[in-house]
């Protein structure tokens, strides 16, 4: 049987699993557990021994309790969800493979103790990723179940990938913004990725944003920390596009993600449309336009009246008689003049936006 061991803390596991554990350990300052992650790749039927180093950071001798739990998924923010013993099996369990030699350890003040354990991969183990956690707690598990006692605990995450029929299938379940209309180029995106395979994936890539005028597209990096998506689960990736300058009209965002599969990189993508209308600028422009239209109307009407007076030698001519003499009504003249002014205003506004 073949297996290889890696003791490392990849960025995606830090984001997915370890941040809450590390924060808990620092806040209690009572115990340190090394390594924080044990990741293995093994064939069905493999057996190997590993160990954890448990350090008592307090100034008094302490008794610690060791127990194990499967990870059945992750929350939207990447925090692992640990399964209880009576919960339904998901197919990604690992605790039954782990044999702990000691379930209670006495660790001296400022001292360390090695905890060996054995991983026995069944011959019938299903291919893909299996996850669990080895916990070190200051209180017995039975008290934790009924809510009694006050203590703290830390966990080392185990990830075992079993060779065989690996399925690396994922899709973008949804790609959206938190609203359809924005007043500026400050847009919040939400991409929900569903892992339909049986291994952990780390989708990452970028979003390309283009406007309706064909200007140079903007790029937004997605999942730069390489956070993972647990098999059979969905996870939201949230990111923002913030850019200075004037934005207006229809925008298209194209999401392109890649992730490592069994035979190389796979791609998934999605597209959405959103709109940017700077209402302050639009309302200001509308106010200016109304002033131009009203002012243009009054000035044009005044000009027409003066032209009529000059044509009549200072005598007022009825509108019907003026139309017969000139061939055009006052209203038509004023309306055409206003349309010309409006067209010039829109042309200037379009040149400004483009």
Give an account of the 3D structure.
- This protein has 354 residues and is an alpha+beta fold.
- The strands form four sheets. Strands 1, 3, 5, 6, 8, 10 and 11 form a seven-stranded mixed sheet that branches. Strands 13-19-18-15-16 form a five-stranded mixed sheet, with no helix packed on it.
- The N terminus is likely disordered.
- The protein folds into three domains: 160 residues, Immunoglobulins (Immunoglobulin-like, Sandwich); 107 residues, Immunoglobulin-like; 75 residues, no CATH class.
- A hairpin with a 2-residue loop joins strand 18 and strand 19.
- It is elongated.
Assign the CATH class of the largest domain.
Answer: Mainly Beta
**How many helices in DSSP terms?**
5
Low-confidence region ranges: 1-29, 145-151
Distance between the termini: 65 Å
CATH architecture of the largest domain: Sandwich
Domain count, please report it.
3
The number of E-state strands comes to: 19
Helix content: 25-40%
Structural class: alpha+beta
Beta-strand portion reads 35-45%
Oligomer: single chain
């Amino acid at each position: 049987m073949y297996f290889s061991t890696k003791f490392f803390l990849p960025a995606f596991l830090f984001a997915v699993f370890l941040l809450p554990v590390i924060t808990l350990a620092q806040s209690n300052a009572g115990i340190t557990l090394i390594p924080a992650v044990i990741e293995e790749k093994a064939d069905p039927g493999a057996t190997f021994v590993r160990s954890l180093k448990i350090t008592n950071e307090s100034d008094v001798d302490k008794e610690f309790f060791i127990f194990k739990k499967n990870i059945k998924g992750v929350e939207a923010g990447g925090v692992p969800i640990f399964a209880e013993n009576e919960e339904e099996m998901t197919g990604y369990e690992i605790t039954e493979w782990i044999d702990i030699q000691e379930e209670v350890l006495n660790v001296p003040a400022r001292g360390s103790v090695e905890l060996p354990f054995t991983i026995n991969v069944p011959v019938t183990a299903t291919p893909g990723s299996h996850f669990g956690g080895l916990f070190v707690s200051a209180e017995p598990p039975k008290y934790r179940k009924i809510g009694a006692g006050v203590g703290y605990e830390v966990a080392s995450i185990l990830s075992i990938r079993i060779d065989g029929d690996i399925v690396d299938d994922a899709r973008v379940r949804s790609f959206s913004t938190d609203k359809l209309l924005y007043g500026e180029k400050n847009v919040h995106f939400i991409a929900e990725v569903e892992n339909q395979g049986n291994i952990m994936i780390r989708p990452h890539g970028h979003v390309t944003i283009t406007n309706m005028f064909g200007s140079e597209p903007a790029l937004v990096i997605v999942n730069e920390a390489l956070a993972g998506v647990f098999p059979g689960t969905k996870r939201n990736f949230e990111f923002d596009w913030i850019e200075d300058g004037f934005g207006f009209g229809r925008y298209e965002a194209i999401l392109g993600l890649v992730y490592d599969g069994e035979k190389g990189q796979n791609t998934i993508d999605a597209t959405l449309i959103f709109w940017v209308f700077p209402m302050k600028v639009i309302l200001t422009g509308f106010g200016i336009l109304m002033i131009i239209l009203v002012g243009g109307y009054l000035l044009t009407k005044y000009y027409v009246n003066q032209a009529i007076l000059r044509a009549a030698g200072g005598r007022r001519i009825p509108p019907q008689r003026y139309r017969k003499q000139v061939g055009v009504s006052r209203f038509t003249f004023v309306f055409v003049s206003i349309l010309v002014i409006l067209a010039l205003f829109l042309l200037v506004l379009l040149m400004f936006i483009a």
